[in-house]
Write a structure and sequence with these properties.
Elements (H helix, E strand, L loop, with lengths): L8 E3 L2 E3 L3 E3 L15 H9 L6 E7 L16 H16 L4 E6 L16 E2 L8 E4 L2 E4 L4 E2 L2 H20 L5 E4 L5 H6 L14 H4 L1 H14 L4 E5 L13 H15 L3 E5 L16 H5 L6 E4 L4 H10 L4 E4 L1 H5 L3 H7 L11 H4 L12 H7 L4
Parallel strand pairs: 3-14, 4-5, 5-10, 6-9, 10-11, 11-12, 12-13, 13-14
Antiparallel strand pairs: 1-2, 7-8
């Protein structure tokens, strides 16, 4: 079934054997020190049949990571932990890229020894931060100076170098969901009056500089980016989404990145407004490389959008949690396993709801005989 989803696709230097990609999924299972562990090795190995795995969002620096037990990529210990993950995925026949994450104003001071988080401007995110001691109100961010911005760009460069040492096949910049790059892009969170604020061209400058630094390390054919061209996302919004994300797509086109992933949530979206027009048609007319769409897809809808040319591939998130063999299930038309204890098991520590979901073949083997 859905034969078009099982045609190979060149994503720059990476050839995906199918068009069912694994979307980045924060799962909160890393060890103290934000170090990947053996449980994560097994989790990614189980899902190696994806056309391409995009790793969970991974902090590029202490300053940029504010999620309990999420992994990082700034320390030698973290690099060693990721080496075991990439080795397992490759031995299972898979491909994996690292998603690079700076959360900006979403980081709570508890992660920063009491210091304020940083952002494009001195703004405060709505709602609550997840911290090791529970939910706490977000705090006002400190505006990054121009020198600070250069330092953060260098942090991205160093993280990209670490990702290469860790054995990844490439990297993806997290430019979505109201995190730091998105905070620079959108006018509600970027109140600057210098060369990084004001006009849309200025607000895309940080995106361009970060991507250029990453491309210097990896090459454009192993660098991608995720954007979320929808409405309010963790308090980040813009009144001109078509113009803004068209300009962002032009940056991606200018740099000739390997692919562009768009998070476009449906009615069950988790990060904010979902009742706004999607911008993939605008972006499709600007960016000429492979376009990957994400969020709330079924196999049928994915096949339809690839068939019509709306996108070249689809990245699946939550279905991959409880279906480690998701491409096979879609190929044979099997019923998908539901997520159990969701959302409780998304972020809780331990194997339950993480690496204990069986494949279809394991389910059949365990089924009682008639």
């Amino acid at each position: 079934m859905h034969e078009n989803l099982f045609q190979p696709l060149k994503l720059g230097a990476i050839t995906a054997p199918n068009r069912i990609l694994m979307a980045p999924l924060t799962r909160g299972r890393a060890d103290p020190g934000f170090v990947p562990n053996e449980m994560m090795v097994e989790y990614y190995r189980q899902r190696a049949s994806a056309g391409l795995i995009i790793s969970e969002a991974t902090g590029i620096s202490v300053e940029g990571l504010g999620w309990p037990n999420a992994p990082g990529i700034w320390s030698a210990e973290q690099v060693e932990g990721w080496k075991a993950v990439t080795k397992a995925v490759h031995e299972a026949g898979g491909r994996i890229v690292l998603q690079m994450w700076h959360m900006g104003r979403i980081v709570h001071p508890d992660f920063l020894d009491g210091e304020a988080p940083v952002s494009a401007s001195a703004t405060t995110a709505p709602g609550h931060a997840h911290t090791p001691t529970g939910r706490q109100d977000h705090q006002q961010a400190r505006e990054l100076s121009v020198d600070d911005i250069a330092r953060v760009v260098e942090d991205y460069r160093k993280a990209a170098m670490n990702a290469k040492e860790a054995g990844f096949d490439g990297v993806q910049l997290h430019g979505a969901n109201g995190y730091l790059v998105d905070q620079f892009l959108r006018s509600s969170t970027n109140l600057r009056t210098d060369e990084y604020g004001g006009s849309i061209e200025n607000r895309t400058r940080f995106l361009r500089e970060v991507l250029t630094a990453i491309v210097d390390v990896w090459g454009a054919d192993r660098t991608s980016v995720r954007l979320s061209p929808n409405g309010d996302t963790q308090g980040a919004d813009d009144p001109e989404p078509s113009a803004l994300f068209g300009a962002a797509a032009q940056v991606v086109e200018d740099l000739e990145l390997s692919f562009l992933e768009l998070r476009q949530p449906g009615p069950e979206g988790t990060f904010g407004a979902t009742d706004v027009p999607q911008q993939d048609d605008v972006i499709r007319n600007i960016y000429s490389g492979p376009l990957v769409l994400n969020s709330d897809y079924s196999g049928e809808k994915a096949s339809e959008d690839v068939e019509t040319g709306r996108c070249d591939a689809v990245s699946f998130g939550r279905p991959f949690i409880s279906n480690p063999d998701l491409p096979y299930r879609i190929a044979v038309g099997a019923e998908l396993s539901p997520n159990v204890n969701v959302p409780q098991s998304w972020y809780l520590p331990g194997e339950a709801g993480y690496i204990d979901y069986p494949t279809l073949e394991e389910q059949k083997a365990e089924a009682p005989a008639d």
